[in-house]
Predict the 3D structure of the following.
Amino acid sequence: MDDDTKSSEAAASDSVDMADSGAVVAGLIGERDALAKERADLYDQSLRQRAEFENFRKRAQREREEFSEFAAMEAVRAVVPVLDDFERALKIESADKEYARGMELIYQRLLEALKKLGLEAIEAEGQKFDPAVHHAVEMEKTDRVEDHTILYQHQRGYNFKGKLLRPAIVKVAVEP
């Protein structure tokens, strides 16, 4: 073979190698792009799962707190009638002043303990009637006070940590 033939075969071989190299490079670029897209998708999925887990953790914590508050509210609700009994007992005159004083101290300690837990008494007498916190069981026609003013509180109402535990049972004035 002569040099021209060898040189044209070498040139043809080089052009085939160049074409193959271009195809290989194009394939590698495509593969790189596919892997980059897959990596971005996996990273995005990872971020979403972390966010979902964080939301789940916060929701679970909030639910635990709500359950704890509900349980405390129900426990306080069960003790409130005892406060009512103490208030009724303290209104009755007793011959034994020391006994009456002891009852008053027990009542005060129980009330203070419940206040620390979040119990708040609703003031009613002399206030304007509010159906959100008062329950009217009596109405009296009078012009001594302004219309819808509470004249008498039959049973004290309570809030627990800002939520109504029990409405105050009241007697309300109405215009004659």
Q: What stands out?
A: The beta strands are 119-122, 134-141, 150-155, 157-160, 163-166, 168-174. Residues 8 and 14 are 10 Å apart (CA to CA).
